[in-house]
Amino acid sequence: MIVSTALSYIYNQLQNKKVDWNSISTYLSFQSILILILFSATNWILEIFKWQNLVSFFKKISFLESTKQSLGSLTASIFTPNRIGEYGAKMLYYPKENAKKIVFLNFISNSSQMAVTCFFGILGLIINSSKFDSLSLWISFKIKLLFLILIIVVAFVFLFFVRKHEVYGFSIEKLVSKIKQFPANIMQSNFQLSTMRYLVFSHQFYFLLVLFNCEIDYPTALSTIFIMYFLASLIPSIHFMDVAIKGGVAVYLFSKFGINEWKIIMITSFMWLFNLVIPVLIGSYFVLLFKSQQK
């Protein structure tokens, strides 16, 4: 339903607009494609280093082994909501006695990336607030920001009251205790890599805005990109259809600055192609070679 709604929104935005498909080649040169590949490679290399760093908590693995696990689990989880299948996929690379550790490490990895997304998303909202040139828009923004803060506070209060409730042997209280015992140096490196990765794909999006001659200044563009990723991350979706979610959110946000909808759709499509489709194809190779360590 969410994906259908997002696709419908995009279609409604484009039904009376002509998408100039023939002009796309004028925006993307061979050199620009190489730069986009470099952005995507850096993005995934950082993710691979992040998983290698986390697993070092109990076992040393090579960069190649981390690559197999990261891209293989991505491929295996592509049709699961919010890539939840990644938890089970990575577990298969390790003996059963390490299953809980892998679930915990994967949670740390995803949570740190989400925390970074939320931080920059709220920062983007604050930066974008200066773009409002009328009192009514400013008041509207303040109300939305306060509402967001209220939701976060309510969520934390709810989690506090159910902290001892266990699901399959897990509880929030136990999780917090494990996080406190987790090595600080590994956690710090994890957040650093998550931040670097976020800035890489955010600037890849900005690079595409520049390639497609979108008339928008750097601070406005980057803050809007931050908001886009923040809002898109709050919507549960199947990762393979993530292009529809991000496309719908991006079209809505960037249209406020007079940027052509078809350009934003093409940009989100290229982001999807370079950062998801190609890694999934590479991961498919590792899935075919996969041998389970579960016994």
Contiguous runs where pLDDT drops below 50 for at least 5 residues? 134-138
Which range does the strand content fall in?
A: under 5%
Provide the succession of SSEs: HHHHHHHHHHHH
- Overall tally of domains: 1
Q: How many DSSP-defined strands?
A: 0
Q: Which structural class is indicated by helix and strand composition?
A: mainly alpha
Largest sheet: none
Count of DSSP H/I helices:
12
Whole-number mean pLDDT: 79
What do you see in this structure?
- It is globular, with a radius of gyration of 20 Å.
- The protein contains 12 helices and no strands.
- With 295 residues, the chain is mostly helical.
- It has one domain.
- The model is unreliable at 134-138 (pLDDT under 50).
- The chain has helices at 2-14, 24-27, 30-55, 63-76, 85-91, 99-129, 135-161, 172-181, 184-211, 218-233, 242-254, 261-288.
Q: Would you summarize the structure shown here?
A:
This protein has helices spanning 2-14, 24-27, 30-55, 63-76, 85-91, 99-129, 135-161, 172-181, 184-211, 218-233, 242-254, 261-288. The protein has 295 residues and is mainly alpha-helical.
